[in-house]
Amino acid sequence: MFLRQSCRQFRGSVAPFVRACHTSGMSKTVTVDVLAAEKIAIMTLNDPQKLNALTLPVAGDFIEAVKSLRDRVSAEDIRAVVLTGAGRAFSAGGDMEWLAERGRDAPHRNADVMRDFYGYFLCVRSIPVPVI
Predict the structure, then answer these.
(1) Would you say 80 and 43 are in contact if contact means Cβ atoms under 8 Å apart?
(2) CA 84 to CA 89: how far, in whole Å?
(3) What are phi and psi of 16, to 5 degrees?
(4) Three-state secondary structure call for residue 94
(5) Exposure string (b/e) for 30-45, b if CB count within 10 Å is 16 or more?
(6) Contacting residues for 5 by C-beta, under 8 A, at least 6 apart
(7) Closest residue by Cα to residue 58 from 127, 4, 132, 117
(8) What does the CA dihedral 44, 46, 52, 58 come to, rounded to 10 degrees?
(9) Taking Cα atoms as reference points, which of 30, 1, 2, 24 lies closest to residue 118?
(10) Within 10 A of 71 (CB to CB), how many other CB atoms are there?
C-alpha cells in the first residue's frame, strides 16, 4: 500500500516538503547524461563532499531526474539507466545530520516523514527500462 501511495505522490507535482527544501539556482545534486549512440542514460548522485548522502535537496533533484528520464525514455529510445555516484562513494545512505534532527520529532510524525522520504527515492521504480 505504501508503494502505491508513493507512486501516486510522484505522478503529481513534487511533494511540498521536498520543494520547500530545494533551492533553485544551486547546482544539481543529481545529473542525467544520455549516451545517444549507446542508448543509455547515466543518472549520477552528485554531492561527493557528503559522499552522496540522501538529503531533501537530493530527493527533489532525484524526483525531477526520474521524471525527466521517464519522458525521455521513449522519445530518445533509451534502453537502460545506470545509477551511479560521483566521487569515491555511490551513496553513504541517509544524511546523518538530518537523521539526528528527525530523532527529536514526535515518533508518529517522524515515522510519517521517514516513510515519505524513503518513498521519494522509490520513484526510480517507475522508469520503464532496466535501472542498473
Answers:
(1) no
(2) 9
(3) -55, -35
(4) strand
(5) bebebeeeeebbbbbb
(6) 119
(7) 117
(8) -90
(9) 2
(10) 10
SS3 14: coil
**CA distances to 7, 65, 114 from 32, in Å:** 21, 7, 26
- Angle, CA of 78, 60 and 13, to the nearest 5°: 85
Pairing mode, strands 40-45 and 80-85: parallel
pTM summary value: 0.77
- Amino acid present at 126: S
Helix (H) or strand (E) holding 110: helix 107-122
CB 43 within 8 Å of CB 85: no
Q: Is 129 helix (H, G, I), strand (E, B) or coil?
A: coil
Instruction: Write phi, then psi, for 110 (nearest 5 degrees).
Output: -60, -40
Give the pLDDT confidence of 6-52 residue by residue, as tens digits: 444 444 433 443 433 343 444 699 999 999 999 999 999 999 999 99
Q: Using the structure block, give the residue that is written with the C-alpha cell 544524511.
A: 95
Q: Where are the beta strands (DSSP E) in the chain?
A: 30-35, 40-45, 80-85
